Amino acid sequence: MQLAHVTNAWEKTSLLTNSGYISLFKATNKHLSKSSLNMALVSVSEKCFNTIESALKAVKTGDIRSSEIMLKSLGNDGLLVQQQASVYCDRLREAENEHKQQVEAITRQINELYQEQKQHEKRKKELEANKSVLRSKKNHYIQGKREALRKYQEVEWQKREAEEKFEELKTFWWVPIYGQYLVVRELFEENDKKARHASREMHRHERDAEEAERDIERTNSGIRQAEEDMRRISEKVEQLERQRQHCHNNLGDVKSMVVFIIQAVTFWKEVVELTRAATVKTENIQKIVELAQKKDSIKILTSRGTQIKMKSFKECWMDLIQTINSDENNVIFQRYAKAAIS
């Protein structure tokens, strides 16, 4: 359905009651796209602002009758815009709660990650302490191996010396020095036993040192894993912190929009009351016009970021509804069409 059709439908309702007018608008909107709906709202809003300004000019020139006719014709339009402003306000309230919930959810995630980070830090400290113990053990085993090697070399030297003496005396077993031969043989055998024992000790310490080295490597692997987990968590926390800050910023922008929309609801309510007044008063129309022209600021949260406007209320309102009309991916008003025609 074309916008002209909708405009004609509004014009034909001048004799209807307000409830009948709104019912007709809702029935017509069931066949409208979101874009057509918002374009219609842009057109009606522009019409209201222009008609109020024209009514003020008429009453200032003494043409009260024309002013009354103009204002009466705005009753249904003003009520429509007021109701759509209320729809915006409700959607923004929902968006505000959604952003608060997002901030709370992200904060919970960050707290959980901090707790996990503490566990990894604790595990790393325990592993580093264990690594220190293992290093001490390894050094002890290495020192033991060195001592065993020293004893082995010493005994081997004594063993060779005894062996040489033994070989020398072996040819004289029949002479009186045979007793010395037996003593040297016992010494040789004793040193041989000591050498074998020292060799076993040396190899045992070597195995223990190697096992300690493997334990140290496993501990280093655990430390590296703990550090990797801590790094991963830190990156995730930084990412969540950015998301939370983004949500905080959006929340502030949404709150700013809520304040503006509340002002808009009040403004259009006064417009409706003006159209229902029994007599036209210049000061009342003047007040509405001044409110429309009053400098105001608004942050419009769009799918492309936040737009900050510092214009008159009229310009801010028109910019807002035109932005909603053109910004198909605006997360704030993506459910607006459904709410407006329900």
From TrEMBL:
<feature type="coiled-coil region">
    <location>
        <begin position="89"/>
        <end position="250"/>
    </location>
</feature>
<protein>
    <submittedName>
        <fullName>Uncharacterized protein</fullName>
    </submittedName>
</protein>
<keyword id="KW-0175">Coiled coil</keyword>
